[in-house]
Amino acid sequence: MTWIFNRPADFAKEMVAGFVNVHAALVRQVPGGVVRSTQSKPGSVAVVVGGGSGHYPAFAGLVGQGLAHGAAMGNLFASPSAQQICSVARAANNGGGVLLTFGNYAGDVLHFGLACERLRAEGIPCETLAITDDISSAPAAEKEKRRGVAGDLSVFKIAAAAAERGDSLDEVLRIARRANEHTRTLGLAFSGCTLPGAEQPLFTVPEGMMGFGMGIHGEPGISDVPIPSAQQLAEMLVGELIREIPAALANSNNQRFAVMLNGLGAVKHEEMFVLWHAAEPLLRKNGLQIADVQLGEFVTSFDMAGISLTLIWLDEELEPLWLAPAHTPAFSRGSIIRERPLSHRQREPVAAPALPQASPSSQQTAAKVMRIIDSVTEVLIENSVGLGRIDAIAGDGDHGIGMERGARAARKAAAKALQKGAGAGSLLQCAADAWADEAGGTSGAIWGVILNTLGTALGNDAAPDARCVANAVAQAGAGVMHFGKAKPGDKTLVDVLVPFSTALQAAAEKSPISEAWQSAAEIARRSAEETANMVPKIGRARPLAERSRGTPDPGAVSMAMIITTVGEMLSDHNSLTGECACPQV
After folding, report:
1. What average pLDDT does the chain have?
2. Do residues 72 and 85 make contact, with C-beta atoms less than 8 angstroms apart?
3. DSSP assignment, residue 584?
4. What percentage of the chain exceeds 90 in pLDDT?
């Protein structure tokens, strides 16, 4: 369990503050995470990593010369928001573009993808890479679905070394992809972890058993098996990883590898030394030449009792980059790097873009949108517990509270934007960032995408008409499917958003927005109910797919609830009408 904390809600914030204070010579805090406090090569690519807090030394502990330029840090086990990622990326940017790289989790994919597009719109060249090293999370034929775990470090390190020597953004991305292709990890857990203030572990493993292949948040693995001896455990890990040797290296006589044996929190170095004593001969017996061994904690999970073994297939390109010097709070290697602290001017905060000028008609629309956001927030607060009950059947039960947190934050941010004279587009984008920041998780990311896309589509120039609103909703649906990878039939809110959007576009051709929205809202309500007959194909509920049969998807239910509330507000106020100045789709 976690013993040392004040208010659990403040744990991540206080942890970052303490970390930065201890390592001020190497890192400094910026909104959303940390960046180097030392000078980087002007014009070089910045490698920005990130993910949820609670996995130290990932991600903040890997920021420093020779490794990451910045780390975006979400709440405990929750992805950072697009706004946080952008803030860190702006501060880390050296003028050569930014590579955003992170573990392949739904929330991270959504938030980092949205941040990438936003940075590009600001004129900062940007690319993303989701790391997929965990072989237990999907078969080799579907490796793009695999999670990113301890192998994150190999990709971060190799990409950063390429950036340090002055490679272009395209070249750094190519090398990072190659490192990801050459990295494989397999982990296991003997017991779960307990978050600060929680009375029970986040997950449990049966007494005397281990979860072989279990993920760092308790995601299901290959199987629960009796705890074996160290020798047997080494044989299991090495045997599974050897089967994953990339085809290009399978027949090579010069298979050089780097190895990482990672402790997930409660398994200590002495135990890992015993496991390595058993594993090393097995690797050599299989023809592997070991170029480097790293044993320690690289990606943890609070007090989780578990370990993972990572193999990195090296070649003439990757090996010198892996072995290149680095100096960070948690990972150092090679010769001493001469570091120069940032100047006072270089430490000045990088300002986020100011709100664009809005027309009077768009400001009037923004006031109407504010009333809608206020009503939606109240509805979500009233239904928070019920949404949580639905989510608990096949998920972790936090959908209701997550939606409430997101809506409350969105309402507060929208109100501030309205006071500053924001147009409808900017107001929605401010609400999007706040929702994603506070809600966390996949649903927070999705609603960040939806509101941000709506804001971009509606703009700040003119009051939208029915067709403009319908087109904005269609773009939001496309954005959700692009970033979240869900499609109709996967049992997600997409199963409501897509039919609603189709119906709204058809109705908007002949009716004002209030009538068009009301008729399409009925389609949304029916679509949400019909998700009860589906089984989830993506997301956290997928491993418990059959358990969810007969229960509607919580995201679909909350989506229909929001659509219905918006329709009622439009009917009451006949709002958002005007002449369309929005881009058509």
Report:
1. 90
2. yes
3. P
4. 70
Contact 312, 180 (CB under 8 A): no
Cα–Cα–Cα angle for 558, 564, 566, rounded to 5 degrees: 105
- In angstroms, the Cα distances linking 9 to 14, 131, 198, 440 are 10, 29, 11, 13
Of 396 and 13, which is predicted with more confidence?
13
CA trace torsion 406, 408, 414, 416 (10° rounding)? -130
Q: Give the DSSP H or E segment for 108.
A: helix 106-121
Taking the C-alpha atoms of residue 282 and residue 162, their distance in angstroms, rounded to an integer, is 32
Report the distance separating Cα 530 and Cα 65, nearest Å. 53
Residue that has been written with the tokens 């120069």 in this structure = 340
Residues 6+ apart with CB under 8 A from 29: 16, 17, 20
What tokens does 547 get? 């358990």
Higher-pLDDT residue of 278 and 252 is: 278
In angstroms, rounded to a whole number, what is the distance separating the alpha carbons of residues 471 and 468?
Answer: 5
Cα separation, 251 vs 438, in Å, equals: 50
Name the pLDDT band for 474 (thresholds 50, 70, 90): very high
How many helices and strands (H and E) does the chain possess? 18, 14
What pTM does this model have? 0.81
**What's the full length of the chain, in residues?**
585
Please tell me the predicted confidence (pLDDT) of residue 336.
62
Q: What is the CA radius of gyration of the chain?
A: 24
Q: Among 187, 227, 219, which residue's Cα sits nearest to residue 202?
A: 219
Q: What is the 3-state secondary structure (H, E, C) of 70-102?
A: EEEEEEECCCCCHHHHHHHHHHHCCCCCEEEEE
Q: Indicate the range of 178-187, 459-468, 575-584 predicted with least confidence.
A: 575-584
Residue 23 annotated as catalytic: no
Q: Is 33 exposed, middle or buried (0-12, 13-18, 19+ CB in 10 A)?
A: buried
CA angle 416, 418, 421 (to 5 degrees): 115
Q: Which token pair is 61?
A: 């502990």
Out of 23, 111, 217, 399, pick the active-site residue.
217
pLDDT of residue 183: 97
